[in-house]
Write a structure and sequence with these properties.
2 copies of one chain form a homodimer. By secondary structure, the first copy, chain A, is mainly alpha-helical. Chain A has 6 helices and 3 strands; from the N terminus they run ααβααββαα. Chain A has a single domain, classed as Orthogonal Bundle (Arc Repressor Mutant, subunit A), CATH 1.10.10. In chain A, 61% of the residues lie in helices and 8% in strands. Chain A has a 3-stranded antiparallel beta sheet. In chain A, a hairpin with a 7-residue loop joins β2 and β3. Chain A is globular. Chain A binds a DNA duplex (30 and 30 nucleotides) through α4.
Chain lengths: 156, 156
DNA sequence: CGACGTTAGACAGGTGACATGTCGAAGTCA
DNA sequence: TGACTTCGACATGTCACCTGTCTAACGTCG
């Protein structure tokens, strides 16, 4: 029933081939690989958004404000991610000896393990995709995405 | 202060060049173009997620369940989007004459205008990107994203 | 040195976009 | 007719953000 007489926006549900949709789906697909890998290694509580914490955390410790700035989100949002990770033992917050207002976020051993897994998985994904497309196409893909981003940045 | 001694995961904040991150950023950039275009035409309440509604809505009307199925989300999530759009006058829900359980979601004139804008903007974006990359590279990009998706699907 | 504007982060509260689970009413099929 | 399914409503929860307010600590400048 209601077999559809004309589908507006995109040309239907089967294969939207819309470039933006493709980009999103490809991202989700690759991202899931990391999440699954972490879950398999016992880090199920680490969710995609937390990569922003580990990604921008230096090993000398980093304040929430700096993390927020680097990840381009508000301090509150970042603080929440850090609280979650602290509750599960992935990071600790210690007072900054140089600034009594500030607290430094530091990775625990457990947190370091997450970083290790991510460091192992991320290049593996890149490599997998490179094999899939071939080195030339992969380089072109990377370049083209950069081109799109630069164009969007400058027109914004 | 705390200039960072070594950044773990990716190689820093400036240009992560990580393929997944690039994909995400490119998607967000293109998506924003649509949202901005809609906002400029007075449809500020229409947000990215709502595209799923308009995209899969046939002009003969479609039930929430069907929309949810097409958009690959739960009925509840889709129902929420529809409620929001109904509250703002973009769609109406009328009883399905053929099924007394069901209600058909229909676009109002205002909703049709959103579709019109989207129909105008989406190809424009595609075209813009195509010009940016050249036809060959654009075709390759599209193809490569498809390849990634198929590979991810089959390995999942 | 002390007042003043800035910064760090805690806390309160809110939103958007999903999820699950339960339910009654309506449809379908044996 | 009864058993099962489906439609959509409602309640509730989660995740990843947001704004706004507040206090303690900091830095500067007169």
């Amino acid at each position: 029933m209601s077999k559809s007489s004309r589908i507006p926006l995109s040309s239907g549900r089967e294969r939207p081939t819309n470039i933006a949709v493709l980009l999103r789906e490809a991202f989700v697909a690759l991202n899931d690989v990391v999440v699954v890998a972490l879950a398999e290694r016992g880090h199920a509580v680490v969710r995609p958004a937390h990569s922003a914490v580990f990604q921008y955390l230096d090993d000398t410790g980093t304040t929430v404000s700096v993390l927020a700035e680097r990840a381009q989100m508000t301090k509150q949002a970042m603080a929440e991610l850090v609280v979650h990770l602290e509750r599960h033992g992935y990071v600790v917050r210690v007072p900054d000896p140089a600034d009594r207002r500030a607290k430094l976020v530091l990775a625990t051993e457990q947190g370091a393990d997450v970083v290790a897994v991510a460091q192992e998985v991320a290049p593996a994904i890149e490599h997998r995709v490179e094999q899939l497309l071939g080195a030339d196409r992969f380089a072109a893909l990377r370049e083209d995405l950069g081109t799109i981003l630069r164009a969007a940045d400058s027109s914004a």
